[in-house]
Each structure stands twice: as C-alpha cells, then as structure tokens.
Amino acid sequence: MMLLTLRLGLMKLDTITKTKLTTKLISTSFNQLLETDIESVLLIERQSSNNPWTQTQLLQSIKNPVNLGYSLVYKSEIIGYLITMPVIESADILNIAINSRYQRKGFGKALIEHLVQVLNKRGINEVLLEVRQSNVSAIQFYLALGFKEISIRKNYYTKNSNEPSVKEDGIIMRLEISTTNKT
C-alpha cells in the first residue's frame, strides 16, 4: 500500500492507493485428467452445477483421445478440472469447474491460463465456450479473462431437469489467443 501526503497551507490531504490482493497459487499443479480422477471430478461437478454432467458423460469426455483434460491439484487435492476439444485452430471448452471452497481465489483463472499456454504451443488461436444466460457470475468471470460474447443459441439449455420443456439461451463466447510466442 502506498500513502501520499500533500500539504496545502494548513489543510492536509491524504490519498491512499490500494493494491489488489491476489492469491498466490502455491502447491498447485496441472495434471492430465484421468479416469481414476472421476470420483473427485464428480464431486466437484455435482457441487458446482445445477445441471451436472453424469459420470458417463464425464468418462466419455475424459476417454476421448481428441479432448484435452486437466485437473488442478492444490495441496494434493483435485480442486478443479477442465475439458476441452481442440479442432484445427480452435478449441471448445466443454466443461470447467472449481470446488466451491476454492472459487473466487484465482484457481479458475489459473486453469484457463494453463489451457491457453498449452493451446498456444499447438498453434490454436481461439477458445470458444457456451454458458447459460442465467449464469451471470460465469459470464462476468469469462469477460474479465478477455472472452467476448459472439452469439446466442436460442433455447439451447434445459432450464432444469424437472421441466425439460422450459429452455434458456446459451451465450457463445470467444477468446483470441496470440500465437506469436509458439515454441
């Protein structure tokens, strides 16, 4: 924190500039998502989504050789995961979730940044995803990371499992990746 004091005659003016605190991700690692991680992934998925993927959906996505999947491990515990499908010069994020105890602490951002590094090395220049229109916090998160809203899929998502006929829109978002630093 920096403190700046100005004296104007008898009047004293104090201006305080605050620095934003960020979580340092100590003891974190990104690992390939494996079938053996399914119990941890299912737990995270069920606690973080009103419409969680099933075990079958998750296993199929993890087993798919085209997909890239990463677990985020913090202090020896899987606290998040991401599954993406790269296709030529683009990649679609299929699913991403962080354990609710660790949300809003920089872990989701770290997971996306790790993915961008991996995709950058592969020459992929954009990341796409879909998000429920009602998921305002996720939309704000993606916008803060540089994603832009590019399209809307009308009536794409089932609003809830009790009323499958009630639908909501999906927002398609895009993040451009600079591939100038490819190795």
Q: How many helical elements?
A: 4
Average pLDDT number: 84
Q: Total strand count, please?
A: 9
- The proportion of residues forming helix, as a percent range, comes to 10-25%
The global form is globular
Give a quick account of the main beta sheet: strands, pairing sense, barrel closure. 7 strands, mixed
Q: Which stretches are poorly predicted, pLDDT < 50 over at least 5 residues? A: 1-23
Order of helices and strands: EEEHHEEEHEHEE
Strand content: 35-45%
- Helix/sheet category: alpha+beta
The neighbouring-strand order within the major sheet is: 3-4-5-6-7-9-8
**What is the distance, rounded to the nearest whole angstrom, between the alpha carbons of the first and last residues?**
38 Å
Q: Give Rg in angstroms.
A: 20 Å
Could you characterize what this model shows?
The protein has 183 residues and is an alpha+beta fold. Helix content is 24%, strand content 44%. Strand 8 and strand 9 form a beta hairpin.
Primary descriptors:
disordered N terminus, globular, two-stranded antiparallel ribbon, 183 residues
Task: Give a nutshell description of this structure.
The chain has helices at residues 38-48, 55-63, 107-121, 136-144, and strands spanning 2-8, 11-17, 28-32, 68-74, 77-87, 90-98, 126-132, 148-160, 163-176. By secondary structure, the protein is an alpha+beta fold. Helix 3 (107-121) links the parallel strand 6 (90-98) and strand 7 (126-132).
Helix/strand layout:
Elements: E1 2-8, E2 11-17, E3 28-32, H1 38-48, H2 55-63, E4 68-74, E5 77-87, E6 90-98, H3 107-121, E7 126-132, H4 136-144, E8 148-160, E9 163-176
